[in-house]
Amino acid sequence: MTPTPISAAPEAAVAMGGPFLFWVCAIIAVAGAVGMLVSRKAVHSALFVVMTMISIAVLYISLNAPFLGMVQVIVYTGAIMMLFVFVMMIVGVDASDSLVETLKGQRWLALGTAFAFAALLIIAISNGFGSIAPTGSIEAANAQYGGNVQGLAHLIFTRYVVAFEVTSALLIVAALGAMMLTFRERFAPKVSQEEMSIERFKRDKHPGNLPGAGTYARHNAVDTPALLPDGSVAHESVPNALIDRGSERAVNRADVDEVRTISEGFDYVDGDSVQLDEEEGQ
Amino acid sequence: MTPEYYIILSAILFTLGALGFLVRRNAIIVFMCVELMLNASNLAFVGFANQWGNLDGQTIAFYVMVVAAAEVVVGLAIILMIYRTRRSASVDEPNLLKF
Lengths: 282, 99
Hints:
The structure holds 2 protein chains of 2 kinds. Chain A is built from 11 helices and 4 strands.
């Protein structure tokens, strides 16, 4: 087949959207890829990859592949990259790269090799620039069965049906594999709530909740120990860190008397003890 | 826009992904670079489908996406397992087989 010049080709097969859309998306995609390469934090890299993938999705749509564009957004940016972010959440966001080179000069060698590889590819592709004409109209292929999705479905369920079946087996194996790999075997039986409470009663002197700081006291700051109903001071109500620091607030003797008065059924008014009325006591 | 522009963009993205695969040390970022390379090849497939005027290239790109999704699930599970045993997500750490 001899290549025909591009001028003889129908313009219909060329991507819609024009050069402006291509250049905007191409620049965003390359910027995202470079950003992924240079950003130190893994989360920033993931967001840069999302940027690249969304611009590639726009390019798919401009290349008359609307179904793939949508799948790119839903599967790649919506599912796969979010899975990456979830794994980063487990592994730890601060697991950033070490700057130590384990192989000496590997970074520069890789840079040189990549540059040479890119130059090779781009020169090879540009050699035949414009010499290959579109051989058919993608719009016609899309319209043959009523649309892009219908056309893809026709191909998947006729010519590529074996690949489709193998893909379903692959997905099941992948799901099973992920479950098996992340499965953690329990070496001790699961501790039930009942056993935990029995253990607590055996171990601690005080199995119930500790009184909250400031209960019955005149202040509710955390450094104010709670007063028990008999007026004694509950030192356990103050956080241990504050006790270690020695910043537990001293309790006013008058407060203790006041609490004792109230707990015995008296109303405390300006230092005098007054018997509560029945109605007021309700 | 002739298809060559798309192929060149695909080549650039593939090269950047390969470069990241070589220079980054965090296993998760290395894995993202693999995804970028798959995306670049997908872009070439869709560009060629546009060029030849049939949907086979788009079908192949669709299958690549499915395989990539399965690969990501297993790969991230392996990274998680290595992290649990070695407490590190760096690709330099699991070098015990070397000695």
